[in-house]
Amino acid sequence: MSVYDIGISSLAGDADELGRHRGRPALIVNVASQCGLTPQYAGLVRLAERYPELTIVGVPCNQFGGQEPGSPAEIAEFGSSNYGVTFPLTEKVEVNGAGRHPLYGALVDTPDAEGHTGDIRWNFEKFLVDGDGKVVARFAPPVEPEDPQVVAAIERVLAD
């Protein structure tokens, strides 16, 4: 199954946010506005500028310390005004537990470099997906978006 087949709305409420990016590699990241890792938004913006053929998808989540409490309008305004976010943001979802969104159900079995699978550990966990919607890499929350291992994985996917 392709992650592009999983329904998730945009932050503005438009249906099928992922499906509209089908055929393009994507970096899917659970984001939060009030987290110590929130400055990673800046690196995500730079990746989006550096690799226009890659879609960055931010997935707001409030499950980690209540660090994404805002409304959709507040989340969009925060990203735009503080970091210049223009990449797509989805509706706010749960990434762990009984209410886990099906998107994260499809993502969490992929191991990161240390072999971690399963629950999302914190905000800014990253998943790289190829144009067919297959998960090809997972990066732990503290791994910066522009870390050489992330960039190398993106460039491999883009070269395929």
UniProtKB/TrEMBL annotation:
<protein>
    <recommendedName>
        <fullName>Glutathione peroxidase</fullName>
    </recommendedName>
</protein>
<keyword id="KW-0575">Peroxidase</keyword>
<dbReference type="Pfam" id="PF00255">
    <property type="entry name" value="GSHPx"/>
</dbReference>
<dbReference type="InterPro" id="IPR000889">
    <property type="entry name" value="Glutathione_peroxidase"/>
</dbReference>
<dbReference type="InterPro" id="IPR036249">
    <property type="entry name" value="Thioredoxin-like_sf"/>
</dbReference>
<comment type="similarity">
    <text>Belongs to the glutathione peroxidase family.</text>
</comment>
<keyword id="KW-0560">Oxidoreductase</keyword>
<dbReference type="GO" id="GO:0004601">
    <property type="term" value="F:peroxidase activity"/>
</dbReference>
